[in-house]
Predict the structure.
Amino acid sequence: MRTIYFLLILLATTYVSATNYYVSSLYGDDSNNGLTINNPFATIQYACEQISAGDTVFVADGTYAGFDFRDNNGTANAPIVFKAMTNTVVLNQNGPQRDDIINIEECNYVVIDGFTTNDATGGGNGIRIVLSNHCVVRNCMCNNNAERGIFTGFTDDILIEHNKCSNSVDEHGIYVSNSSDRPIIRYNECYGNNGCGIHMNGDLSTGGDGTISDAQVYGNIVYDNNGGGGINMDGVENPLVYNNLIYNNHSCQGIVLFGEDGAIVSHGAKIYNNTIIVPSDGRWGILVKDGANINTEIYNNIIINNHSFRGCVSIEDDTDFSCDYNIINNRMSNDDGDNVMSLSDWQDLGFGTHSLVANEMSDIFIDVDNDDFHLKDNSQAINVGTNNVNTVVTDDIEQKNRPIGTGYDIGAYEYGTATNLININKNTFNLYPNPATNNLQLVINNEQLINKNIVIYNIAGQIVRQFKIQNSEFRIQIDNLQTGVYFLRIGTISKKLIIK
């Protein structure tokens, strides 16, 4: 086991001037120096008291108490990182100062990666980050916490990705609040929560401008939640909401735009290529409250509602509102759901000219009974969407390039068969030298990747390079990138790149 840890340590060395600390509940001691896996601290809280910008705390498998980290900043090039070394690092006791299991407060540029945070009691969250900007929460599992899985407040440029947030006892899976601008919430799974799957609330009463601006919410799977909305937005301005799968959420909408606690009514939303399936005890597929219609666009969505009388899209005002190229039930509303109208009546209002009434779900999706919402062969959703979304939507929920066929498919999944999908695996491309200094050589082993996109992003998830593959072997200039760890991604495959 320690040999595996040693290899991980070598791969994870991030900054030449940074310090790595190690924690083990099995054989650690807070009287150790914590500088090697063979001489680790026993508690994460003690490690918190030793670290500064650029440092990483590696936590070995085991069970731990929560921790509280305050008033300590990383930087853009040297974040403070808390990293679980395996997927069996479990924190299941509240931290020392609050009921939350992990609490980050007044700390910029902090990364939380790979922890399981379960069973917070009192009013606790699995992970709470407040008054902290440019932070990252990724690869965490938050289950059965008293309030929420992940909660943030006053957190500009927060990145929340690849987490599972389930069975929150009181409220939501993921909750971004309090004037947190430019949040990115992507590739998370939120289910079984008592409230919303994903909730955003500007909440003017707590201070700030009461507005969440320029949110991006994409690639999430949200199901079996129990109130509000699958994706709920209060006081949110110009959000991009796309490629989400939202199904079987009870007593709530699929997506809702409104204004209550926020300083403004949520508006300017670009709601593209989502798959929304509302159960018989749900509400509306997409609810657009009065004022939320302004500059809001709803394109390329599959919205199917199994409720007896509620439908797919409900608005109160149609000013500056666009809605087309959707697959829907034959039930819409322009009076906040008091009455429903057919697609043809909706078209008479100027909406849905290219929209389609949904076929049976068994004719659209591969296996509805087992929640497989990939598109079936000959699905009516294939190649009938609009490319008006192409400045936002360039791939699907599984990061498969869009469009594959003659046009955009409707819904979260792009259809593809074995003959028209590119088989990308870890051997599809190689890069060397690694570590690199000034130049990086990229070798492509599949000609189908020519003209496809490559992304290089840093440890905080921020994209630092984006370009197209020009030929099977070419050189990339990296001399103006800071020393550290980066990731190069083609399709769904990422490889670690160390720049020294």
Notes: Residues 1-16, 417-421 have pLDDT under 50 and may be disordered.
